[in-house]
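User: Fold this; tokens only.

Assistant: Input:
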Amino acid sequence: MRKHALEGIRVVDFSWIVAGPTCTRILADFGAEVIRVEFEYSMDYIRGAYAAGGSPNASGMFNNLNRNKLSATLNVLHPRGTELIHDLISASDIVVENFSASVLERWGLDYEAQRSIRPDVIYLSLSGFGHTGRDRDYVTWGPTAQALSGLTYMSGLPGEEPAGWGFSYMDHTAGYYGAMACVTALHHRNRTGEGQWIDLSQVESGIALTGTAILDKTVNGRPFRREGNPPGNRSPHPRVAPHNTYQCKGEDQWCAITVFDDEQWAAFVEAIGSPEWTANPRFETNEGRYDNQDELDELIETWTSCHTPHEVFHKLQSAGVIAGAVQSPKIKVDEDPQLKHRNFLPEIEHAELGKAKFEAEPMRLSRSPWELRRASPLMGEHSDYVFGEILGLDSEEIGELMVEGVI
């Protein structure tokens, strides 16, 4: 049996920045041979972003997104480069790109052209708006896709302007959808022998996350609104209390507590030692607690402020109350024992960065697990392998291609 779910699958990876590399990272982590096709004169922006010493191989973000992959440099617009990319596609199963809609068309590599090279090819194009329609040629980044999908409108504090998420979450989300679509297309090909074109819109994948707001408007006629008082963590649907973040012992230390029913409230009261204020008739029912949230939250904070976030977390969870410590990035990376137990940040040696940590996949498959097999590739590190072993060129031909600026 194969050790990894996608062992034996080869992917030609034209993707860059975040969305496409997130997709191909998942495929690579589960065993696919992912070959990044790069060209140093139009280098992936993330290769140079936040890079130590300006090296295109030393960006932490690039390395996290591109571990387990190979890199071959190729000028696809050179006539000989065009021939080589055709040869590589003919020897591969999946082609992934997340450029604007017209880029691969200009390269002469739209879906029909790819099918003429390999009839059962699976082609994933991951663009902001998809490859059809009025806006197909417009450019998006994660934050603009969030705005167009409606997610930016749904974020922020009550009574304030929409805030957005402050990071390109939609790039990652679109990458997850892309990986799922590729695996689904592989399953279809295994059953029928047919490849297909996956035309994925980043904006549309964001709209899927607004479903609850759309349902509320459709069923109840309620427009979306950012409810609750700052910090905006109260729950309007369902209307339950307490449901908020609370200051804890120490500077800028917080915890989150959620109580959904009277049984959980009784467990919460017992866990914090049944202080006198918990017997107030206004807090006896969920309705009363919800209607008196301001006072309730202030009283809860008199207890949480005497404890660290993790003391609150463990004490309440042990009593059956839903609670969590608000963790900083440093705590998650250096101190969280649960994440250490799960090996969520495995380490592997990188040629320039030394021993480096990488983000794990959050799912574990018992029979075909993901594995961190190698660090991210140096620019063009595997050109000899790709052009020599896969495409069968000898060393003299590879040398000529280097002189001509093809690779």
